[in-house]
Design goal:
- The chain has two domains: 65 residues, SH3 type barrels (Roll); 68 residues.
- The N and C termini lie far apart (43 Å).
- With 167 residues, the chain is α+β, with helices and mostly antiparallel strands.
- The radius of gyration is 18 Å and the shape is flat.
- The strands form two sheets. Strands 6-5-4-1-7 form a five-stranded antiparallel beta sheet, with no helix packed on it. A two-stranded antiparallel ribbon has the order 2-3.
Length: 167
């Protein structure tokens, strides 16, 4: 019985780690101002948010002339490659607890705002609510990082720290 559990656990870990490594290929930094972050990899696609020079995002995949990145909603969004450089590391979070708490609160407020607006727009359609809420989350959370010059790629680390410390 123990060998079977170990075998299943080993297979699960190999598949999970392989899946993560296949999709997480470093980071990109924006090298231009006012970069459109789009829903799909084409210039006629909906703009979800505006990136600023120096914003750093976790890279998902390279798709032709576009990079897909992971945004706060967990959804992939798209940035035109010539507006970016690939990098391997993300700067550390600020050491100031007060700044981290402030950003954490701003992110929580952005999430609540996105939820309220999506419900108000589609009170009887949960699927449209969810889709709009994800888009609005990506749009509303990015300015909090830009305002405090924190890399958006640090989102999960900041949120984890905030939840752990009950901010």
């Amino acid at each position: 019985m123990g060998k079977i559990c170990f075998l299943f656990l080993s297979i699960f870990l190999v598949l999970t780690i392989g899946h993560i490594n296949a999709h997480a290929d470093g980071y990109i930094i924006l090298v231009k101002e006012d970069v459109n972050i789009r829903l799909e990899p084409n210039t006629s696609s909906t703009v979800i948010a505006k990136g600023q020079k120096g914003d750093i995002f976790r890279l998902a995949e390279s798709e032709g002339d576009w990079y897909s990145i992971y945004m706060f909603s967990g959804e992939k969004r798209y940035i035109f490659k010539p507006l970016t450089d690939k990098i391997t590391d993300v700067p550390e979070l600020p050491t100031s607890i007060e700044i981290k708490k402030k950003v954490f609160r701003e992110l929580s407020d952005a999430k609540e705002r996105a939820a309220n607006e999506s419900y108000a727009k589609y009170p009887n359609d949960i699927f449209k609510q969810i889709d709009l809420e994800r888009r609005l989350n990506d749009s509303y959370k990015l300015p909090a990082f830009q305002k405090h010059t924190i890399p958006p790629a640090s989102y999960h680390k900041l949120m984890g720290e905030g939840l752990k410390n009950n901010w």
